[in-house]
Design goal:
This protein has 14 helices and four strands. The protein is mainly α. The chain has two domains: about 70 residues, lambda repressor-like DNA-binding domains (434 Repressor (Amino-terminal Domain), Orthogonal Bundle), CATH 1.10.260; about 170 residues, no CATH class. The N terminus is likely disordered.
Length: about 260
C-alpha cells in the first residue's frame, strides 16, 4: 500500500534531468552510480533518459547517493510507500511544538531530547500516512520541497515555525502553501534555509531544484542541524510519543529558563 499527495504538473522536466544535474554536480558517472546502487547501467541510464523509476531502484539509489529514499520518491513524483512514510500524520501539531521548544535549549539538552526520541520503541502503524492538505502541490521544485517537509510531519505551520526558530527565514504559514502550489518561486535564500531543516546539503538541493545560488551557502547552525535530526527521528513515532517528547522539551526549557534567573 502506498500513500499519495495531490499534485499538479507544471513543466516538470522529469526525475532523470533532476538526477542528472546531481551527478554532474558531484562529478559522478552513470556506471559508477549504477554500481553503487546495485542496478545495471542500462537500467540507470534509462531513468536518466526519462523512464519512470521503479520502487526498487529508488530505494537502492537512496543509500547509494546518501539521501533518504523518501526524498527521492518525492523528487521522482512517485507515491511514498507506507514503510517509508511517517508513522502518524496526527503527530504534526506536536512536532511543531517539540521543534520550537527544543531549538531554544542548549546543545546538551537538545541532545537529551534527541536521545529520548531514539530510545522510544516503534509502535504499530494504524493507518496509511495521509497529511492534511489545504491546497494541491505542484510536481515542481516548490511542491517537492513542501512535500519533503510533509513527510517529516511538518505542515505549513510546522515549516514556518521550524525555519523561523533555526534559520534567518521568517515567512507566514500560508506562504509555504503558495510555494507548494507553485504560486511563489523558491529563492536562493529559501533553498539554503529549507535544506538546513531538511538535513540536505544546500548546494545539492539547489542543483536538484534548478535554483542558482548567488553566493556560497552559509553552513547550517547547530540548532538547525539538531532540528533536522530530531524531526527525522520523530517520523517513526506516534502522535502520543511525539507529544511526550514535546512535553519533555518544554519542561527542559522551563527548567533552563528558571536556572538563568
Amino acid at each position: 500500500m502506498t500513500t499519495a499527495t495531490t499534485t499538479t504538473t507544471t513543466g516538470h522536466h522529469g526525475f532523470g534531468a533532476t538526477l542528472g544535474r546531481l551527478l554532474d554536480h558531484r562529478g559522478l558517472g552513470a556506471g559508477d552510480t549504477a554500481g553503487r546502487a546495485g542496478v545495471t547501467e542500462d537500467e540507470f541510464r534509462a531513468v536518466l533518459s526519462g523512464e519512470t523509476p521503479g520502487d526498487a531502484l529508488l530505494r537502492r539509489l537512496g543509500p547509494a547517493l546518501g539521501f533518504h529514499a523518501v526524498d527521492l520518491f518525492v523528487l521522482a513524483g512517485q507515491p511514498v510507500p507506507d514503510d517509508l512514510a511517517p508513522l502518524d500524520a496526527e503527530a504534526a501539531s506536536s512536532v511543531t511544538s517539540m521543534v520550537t521548544d527544543t531549538a531554544r535549549l542548549p546543545e546538551a539538552q537538545r541532545k537529551e531530547v534527541l536521545d529520548l526520541a531514539r530510545a522510544l520503541p516503534q509502535e504499530e502503524r494504524r493507518a496509511a500516512f495521509a497529511p492534511k492538505l489545504h491546497a494541491p502541490l505542484v510536481d515542481a521544485p516548490g511542491g517537492w520541497v513542501v512535500r519533503m517537509f510533509l513527510h517529516r510531519n511538518l505542515d505549513w505551520r510546522g515549516i514556518a515555525h521550524a525555519l523561523a526558530y533555526v534559520t534567518p527565514t521568517y515567512l507566514s504559514p500560508p506562504t509555504y502553501g503558495v510555494i507548494g502550489a507553485g504560486g511563489k518561486e523558491l529563492t536562493p535564500h529559501l533553498v539554503t534555509d529549507c535544506a538546513a531543516v531538511l538535513g540536505i546539503d544546500a548546494l545539492e538541493l539547489a542543483v536538484m531544484t534548478g535554483v542558482v545560488l548567488d553566493r556560497p551557502p552559509t553552513p547550517p547552525s547547530p540548532e538547525a542541524r539538531d532540528t533536522a535530526a530530531l524531526v527525522w527521528e520523530a517520523r517513526r513515532l506516534s502522535a502520543g510519543q511525539v507529544h511526550h517528547l514535546s512535553e519533555a522539551a518544554r519542561m527542559l526549557r522551563e527548567d533552563h529558563q528558571d536556572g538563568e534567573r
